[in-house]
Description:
Elements: H1 8-21, H2 23-30, E1 39-42, E2 45-48, H3 49-56, H4 58-61, H5 77-83, E3 87-89, E4 106-110, H6 115-124, H7 134-137, H8 142-151, E5 158-163, H9 167-170, E6 178-183, E7 186-198, H10 200-206, E8 216-231, H11 232-239, E9 251-253, H12 255-264, H13 270-275, E10 284-289, E11 296-301, H14 311-321, E12 328-330, E13 333-334, E14 337-338, E15 341-345, E16 348-354, H15 360-374, E17 381-388, H16 394-402, E18 405-412, E19 415-419, H17 423-433
Amino acid sequence: MGISDVTRDAVLQTLAEYDDRGGEVFLAEYGFKPARRYLILHDGRRYDSKAIIGVAHRHVNGHVLKSGDFSGGAATIVPVLTRLGFHVEGPRTGKAPADSSLVTRLLVSPAFGSAESRRHWRDTLDQPVPFTEPQYAEPLTDDQLDRLKELHPDGQARFWGATSGHDGKMARVSTGDVVLFTGKNHVRAIGEIGAIFRNRTFADVMWPPKQGGESWHTVYSLRQFGTAEIPYATLSALLGYKPNFQYPGQLVLSGEQARAGIDGLLITTRTALEDAGAVAPPGTVRELPVERQHTRSTTVERAAQQVLFNRDESALVIEFCGTLTDTTAKRFASAAGICDIFLNGPEGYELIEAKSRVERSYVREALAQLLDYARYAPGVVGRLTALFPQPLGPEELQLLHHYGIDVIHRVAPGAFERLPAPDRAREQMRIMWESREPSP
């Protein structure tokens, strides 16, 4: 008896249990992690698809299928749920892009306040740790080492962690979540969670505790890491805290609050791009011909580097979004990447790409991204717009207007001017915007 036996009534009963108990309690009780690729959309809410199917099995065959009992994905749970009449969102379902930021958590981790934490920072954040070397590899379990190698094929990674007092919070964290490292009234760096596990011995090798001090318990690697200089007041405005909030301890935020921080800071994780089909996962192997030889060699194609966070563009977007009224500003992930701003206002949908500079190369990049993202937008886009920190030159402005793209530029703190494209150019281009990327 497998997942194909699950009925619609069984799924509905399980969705009701999920609502009654809350998602985090539900997942913890049955041993599932949050879904990242495929979500059930039902009555305006999203649910972890694999967990729902596994627990729904109990209502048909008397026992819950654990996470390891079956595989999730396009070839397994998606056909079952679709056959039962449920809407499934995900990278390869042919539906609207999954709102991945709703299942991505945001950690706020004090990391720069004490002399000890600053020493840890120098040891494992300022520089990567060669975890395949014996002193680091020996304390790791086979599964932990394999997972690290999978996410970091070059055998080195930056690391951070938490003490056992945070075990409850950290149990909810998984690959692709975002961490903000804080200290001295600023977010000092931003990272994307890679492998996460509990291993006190491994932690002690990297961060030897002081005499009588407490060891770290949970350890996580960072798939991406970048320094930042974001005042607490800016972060608090995004998260809905008071301006003078000091972030005294570890926070693990989820749902809309996490999305507000991640989207507001224009954080783009590699995991979100992989889930949307925009980039290949690490360790992708393919055969390539060797030039001027009659042999073939197998090579590991390393993933292209992604920009996790762009400080200047983020500040520009935060300032611009602060001027909006009666408008919802979000982002969406697609096979083309993750857009900067997707507005839904009184005049319909508008797709906006922000650039930190006005040179022609930046203008051309904005043009290409807007035309690419428009194919995947979860709604018919009425305007494409490029956002800049200052006015464009006449040739750059003409280039964007030729393709029906509006230009918005900053004229003063908190003030922006829109230079709309000619109506005729916009209407001619909308035929292209409104076309949809065919389902795979």
